[in-house]
Amino acid sequence: MNLQREKILANLPIEDFIGRSRELNTLLRHAKGENNANGLLVLSAPSLGVSELLRQTYDQLFYEQGEIIPFYFSLRKSDKTARQSATRFLQNFLQQIIAFRRQDSKILDASCDICELAELALPSDGYWIDRLIETCQNESKLNNELAFVRNCLSAPLRALANGIRAFVMIDDLHKAEYFAGGID
Fold this sequence. Notes:
This protein is mainly alpha-helical. Helix content is 45%, strand content 8%.
């Protein structure tokens, strides 16, 4: 497999990412639907390079510009609540989708808010992105904390309903234990 040499989310150049080509190829094949599994769980003890493996997978899929759009999201201790994490999830998702569709990784380095991202979206993506943002911003009684989190986390499914296939990689899930606010 011919791997690109540019870094987008990865911390290491691909040539310095040694000894994980088998795992990287497995993730790339899974992302492209070359096996029959719907999901794939990658487990590892901390500090063994799984985060970098996921970021390398992201970079390669971004450069291939195939049908599958990579999405990498890492939970943070600084996300004090599920709502904060869900908001960041939605913003990261839109930012990564738009960067991929525009073939412009520089969008990933920009500090765009959600409304600015909607303006950067391709015209063909504008409707579903606007609807997703509107649903998450709606302040009705029906949009309680749990509904808000669900709406944000449903972004990949809403994208799929509009023909956008994303390969979702969620990292550092163990950090969710630090969330306050009662939403598991």
